[in-house]
Design a protein that fits this description.
The structure is a homotetramer of 448-residue chains.
Chain A (H helix, E strand, L loop, with lengths): L5 H9 L2 H13 L8 H14 L2 E4 L15 H13 L7 H4 L6 E6 L6 E7 L14 H4 L15 H18 L6 E7 L8 H6 L8 E7 L7 E6 L4 E10 L15 H13 L9 E10 L9 E10 L2 H22 L2 E10 L6 H11 L7 E6 L8 H10 L3 E7 L18 H13 L16
InterPro entries (chains A, B, C, D): Amidohydrolase (IPR017439), Bact_exopeptidase_dim_dom (IPR036264), Peptidase_M20 (IPR002933), Peptidase_M20/M20A_hydrolases (IPR052030), Peptidase_M20_dimer (IPR011650)
Cofactor (chains A, B, C, D): Mn(2+)
Pfam families (chains A, B, C, D): M20_dimer, Peptidase_M20
Chain lengths: 448, 448, 448, 448
């Protein structure tokens, strides 16, 4: 099979530069948070179909019951109206409505070869973007139009990379073999969306899976082949329901949900450390009570556990539930909870990491290649996809492309050097051209 | 000195009945909560001046620095606009603006005799009124127009009683001696307003002081001459300020305000019981944290202590502050607090109670007279006024006029039998006619 | 029926004075704590039988399963040996052995009349007596021989009163009617013993019941006819059992009993105050853990609840168990508890109080008579007996005979003015002579 | 310089085997815990002096004020008596008395070369040894004679290794250069003793330092050249002192030390996890309160913090003290604490590890050589010595010699395969013979 040369790739991607900038800034300007990426997803789907991909959206790629942390129906409805007002492509909206904002594009080359999948994420954060003059998006007029939503993590760039790659692959098709699959996932923030695409079967036929992130503390020009620092995590929304009473007149008639929440918060943070790796616990939000002179009858907690391995996180979650149930019993109140997010930890496939390391060293714009980065950091939804791929015998990794940042991820002045967009597209395309390599052949399913 | 007979009083008050109903329902319909009783106070002042009383309002009767729990400036400003829209009497508004909503009316008979003062309260609760058909104010169209504000304690009735009494006294003036003083206080709910009127000197010349409440669990036709169950209380708003940190990436960099609030809540409720009388503690509201994955950097508590005596409450407050300071120190966070309300406990003057008991027995509509009711219940701002009066050698009591209630005080379907309005006015007037009695002569100041 | 005059009583009791002093100091010198009053009970039984009473001891008057807080078998066995060494009357010991140290003496006059019962208590406290020179028992050589046991509450005096009364009654028999019953109970401290005598049926035939205490804050010369301040109480011994683990090597393998106990202690003290009367909670002892570097696998609590009424105490106990169970569940540890003591609150019978008040006023040595004392104080085992008597239609009260104290009850320098002994004996005998009064006739059983 | 061959070493050590067994079992039989190793230290000193070493003991090698966790004077005195009874060498006792149980032996070869030091520890654990038949020391009659003290960690073996090495070195002297220093330290358990030897200057002239441990989870035949898993740690003894009160009569008069300890325990365990490495916290012992019905006036905690680095542990300790002070303030009680133990984490010198790895591979009895073991485990007093050596430019490491164990370290049935004794002695001697190697030359002081 013929390959095209790297200089050719550079030329091809350079031709896309104006379009990349336009896309990135348009998505940034119309930031949409998890499960309401109606405008973004419709534009992505329209472009992919226009390019000739077989496009699936909505419930075809999202398992309804596996979604986590979906907003209330009114919020979804208002967001759909806003998307329509802001130029969403109408014909895709019926399928996306209600929080089914995933898009999958496939292209079969007709030649034998692996199914190669890329994951990018679509959603913005719940954050108010800075309007300060020293924040470029504000100064240049592409800061978020949408109050309380901001692309402060770089997913606007990821979506752009996905579309740029889609265009480039059309040109490269004669040189590719097997199948190309581009996965645009909703609701990565809060690790809420990947499970629904996994459960819909989107990953089941994937042989080689690459998720990417720009930035995350890596220098410009440096590429990480396999990021292995993501912590397994569980997000829980908890409600304690007690009995109100007048705190002066008959306090003994109450069952105090606030005290249950206080006991629980202490108990949760006191869950023992784990000797086999990092663990985390945080009660991030606690709201309890209605009035100063009323025994509080309701309390709500937003909490999360994490673990360096999924096993550690599972143990943290089990203990957290013991604590929550016990705290409720102490005060004679009821406790209910819902899963608001969940991610695995998942190691990159060593053979894929090794392959990438060998093939990308020395590419233009790449000064340094790190094979595996182990430093524990946050959590990442793509791990759920990686796990499914590896369990079924495929190879999976998570790459990081360094870039200069104006401020850290999740900061209201986050911005990135857009040079990372063509670099990432070129590098991923370069790998696609070599994906039918014996070193990457499918193997027996793994037990992770 | 001549007196008029009770049958005359009944006739005179019956003539007021349509006006009483109109007032009560108008005030109910335009419920205004503490410190924003702009419309109510302006109507009260206008009526009192029209009747010939010497009227003082605003800073003349409210000491600015002694007010507690005053809303934010924007809230005050919006409420003033609303009052204007809803028919406030414009000429009083400049003096009332900014939260100075007290009104005092005086009438000097020119004859020797005591200064006799009545206290009524003007404010509504922060509560959404029921719109159900079985709630009479909703059915008959006088439920509160103002979202989140409701006369659910009966202060609309109290204000009506104050105005009815004012009208009646004009007729009775030939039969009265000494001075009459009608005190309309703001912000009784949360025990926030009385102190500012006491510090403005409003009570300093009062010889006989009667505060009244309708309802409070007493049967229709029953009158309590001296309610002695009010608990001394302190209301505190507390803020813990810590340091945020990413709960996954570097939890050790945070100082957790939520955990400080949790420790404090447990410590507060664990303050020891007091052997010399009832005590109470309640953390009614706790709000902490901003996001699930952030170490919470802020927490706010609304709490209250109570005591059967002021001494007990003082001890509760002292311990509460120890707990709050210690909890902050445990987590390395800062703690600040403000006094959001305060009331004394104060016993009614025994001689005044005895006098009232003797003189009202057998009046029309009064089936039963209870001299002193000791059952601990909530707290009451008037106790601060009672204490000042007694400290300066006057007599003071707190009377309760029973009535049928549709639902308990502070319930969103609270309503009362309006028959209590004329009964209360007649009874209070009856006492006024006999106030120049040797048994009620001023004595040496008391140490309470 | 003839009565003897008060002067006669005085003469008769004065003749006993040397014996009273001898008894009191002997019992004080040989202090025996609850359930091990082997020497004391044997001497009491021997004297009563010698006087001609029908004496019952051991399991005849103690229901084995209803005993609470009985020491371990080794402790019982050692105490029996010590009692033997210190002059116990051998022939009673087999029946008393193992913690059955109650004695009941009965005398039937053969004449119609009520069964009149007196309750005295035998046990000392677990306390080391002062050896200071300003402590009379030390100075005069009758301080406790037994380490860690001291009559610091006055039960040595009570036992003396019981024996003195027994002797006096023998002289008075011609003047008495009905039946006399003298009840010497073990283990009043910790409210552990009365229930076992009640369940053995000792109180079932009693018409008039009088329990007595000397001291308790009442002045010398003052007598309380009905003490009503005893709080209902429940004593619980609690054990949390978790799983140990090395705190450095694998803390996650442990289940932490110490943290369960800490959570429980806070939750217990935070049980809401009760609006209908005084309540109390105390975790008096907490011992947890075995070594600094081991996750604690065991924790033990000694706690008590109290209530001004038995209903309040029952609610406290119910909540305490919720807290304990919940705290265990939070940490995944087991919780077991045992009842270590229990007393009711029980009001004295008003008619008996009134009768006593009328009959003792003006007796020699009595300066002041208080009908009912309501001030909440500690708890008292006799209330369980009082309740049984009143439930079956009898009359019951709890009298207090004031005396000067060297230091408060339960203090290691406690001592009392022995003048109270003859005064109490005379007064109780005086009442016995008048017990067949129509005012004290048995009535229908009460529901308390 | 000449060296002797490994076969020679084997022969020489084999000759010592009966003596090694005798020593080990004698020390095991006469287990002495930290600071009371009077018998053990006297026997060690006597043997070393007999062999010709220059021996220093007591305050010459122990800085009095730097000792931690020293028992009370009575305990020290009783232990000295017991040591005397059990055959301690009398002439050393005066210097050792009072808890100065360190021994240092030096031998200067007179030839240029490094000062090579070995650290072994002398103390037993506070643990009751098993008397079960399947426990070899019990079955063969060398289980501990001393109640509550047991060599359950292997220090009896370490002391034996130290003496065996001392004997062997005498034979090897012609082949050695520089100086040999044998350091026998007291009170390693609880990490209490090393600091006092460091502060006495014992380590200041050491160029190469090797501490050793047998067992610790490593297979027989496996040797770890540099154990790097020891956690820095701080041991604190904490006392809360409040005010007692009768829990029924006047609970408000108390200041509750038990609740302070409970709040503290929860707060301590809730100290945030550290993102840069493992941390630990354990409240291992909590004892509070004196009686069920008394507000607890005293509480005592034994706790420890640990950290993968000394910096992490320092932060844990700082937060722990905040928690303790704050908890005391919450309850109005006093808090005092004392340092009961302390150890650093300290990495082995890489060049020394590399050297050892290269030189011991293939020695008889060594099947496997692990260069560095990173798994976090407990803490180790020798790290304080290692740090001093490295700070002054020397090299230091911590070696582990695997062996079969009957039960884990600190278990009451701990026992080890005594084959590890000659293996360790041979290996350490083998290294000594090569210590004057350029690779091990002293370098500039390090900042650790």
């Amino acid at each position: 099979m013929s390959t095209i040369t790297t200089p050719d790739l550079k030329t091809a991607v350079d031709a896309l530069l104006p379009q990349l900038k336009t896309w990135r800034r348009d998505f940034h300007h119309h930031a949409e948070s998890g499960w309401v990426e109606f405008r973004t997803a419709s534009i992505v789907a329209e472009e992919l179909e226009r390019l000739g991909y077989r496009v699936s959206v909505g419930r075809d790629v999202i398992d309804a019951d596996s979604r986590m942390g979906v907003p209330e129906p009114e919020v979804l409805a208002q967001a759909l109206d806003r998307a329509r007002d802001q130029g969403a492509v109408e014909r895709w909206l019926p399928a996306l409505a209600g929080g089914y904002t995933g898009v999958v594009a496939e292209w079969d080359t007709g030649r034998a070869g692996p199914t190669l999948a890329y994951r990018v994420d679509l959603d913005a954060l719940d954050l108010e973007e800075s309007r300060a003059d020293d924040h470029r998006p504000a100064r240049e007029g592409f800061a978020s139009r949408n109050a309380g939503m901001m692309h402060a993590c770089g997913h606007d760039g990821h979506t752009t990379i996905g579309l740029g790659l889609a265009r480039l692959f059309v040109e490269l098709m004669p040189h590719l073999s097997g199948r190309i699959k581009l996965i645009f996932q909703p609701a990565e923030e809060g690790v809420r969306g990947a499970r629904s695409m996994v459960e819909a079967g989107v990953l089941d036929d994937v042989d080689i899976f690459i998720a990417t992130h720009i930035g995350t503390g890596v220098d410009k020009g440096t590429v990480v082949c396999g990021h292995n620092g993501y912590l397994a995590t569980t997000k829980l929304d908890v409600t304690f329901t007690g009995v109100p009473a007048h705190a002066g007149a008959n306090p003994e008639a109450g069952n105090n949900a606030l005290l249950a929440a206080a006991q629980a918060s202490l108990g949760l943070h006191a869950i023992p450390r784990h000797s086999t790796g990092a663990s985390r616990i945080n009660v991030g939000v606690l709201n309890a009570g209605s009035g100063r002179n009323v025994v509080p009858a309701a309390a709500r907690l937003k909490l999360e556990t994490r673990g360096e391995t999924s096993q550690i996180n599972d143990e943290m979650q089990r203990r957290a539930l013991d604590v929550l149930r016990g705290a409720a019993a102490m005060q004679g109140v009821e406790m209910t909870y819902s899963l608001a997010g969940e991610a695995r930890n998942c190691e990159p496939s060593p053979s894929l990491v090794e392959f990438i390391q060998a093939r990308i060293a020395g590419l233009p714009g790449i000064d340094s290649v790190i094979p595996v980065e182990n430093r524990p950091s946050g959590s990442e939804d793509a791990t759920t996809m990686m796990q499914r791929v590896r369990e079924r015998g495929g190879l999976a990794t998570y790459m990081v492309f360094g870039t200069d940042l104006a401020a850290g991820h999740h900061h209201q002045r986050f911005d990135f050097d857009e040079d990372v967009l063509p670099l990432t597209i070129r590098t991923l395309a370069h790998l696609a051209l070599q994906a039918d390599d014996p070193a990457l052949r499918r193997r027996r399913p793994e037990t992770l």
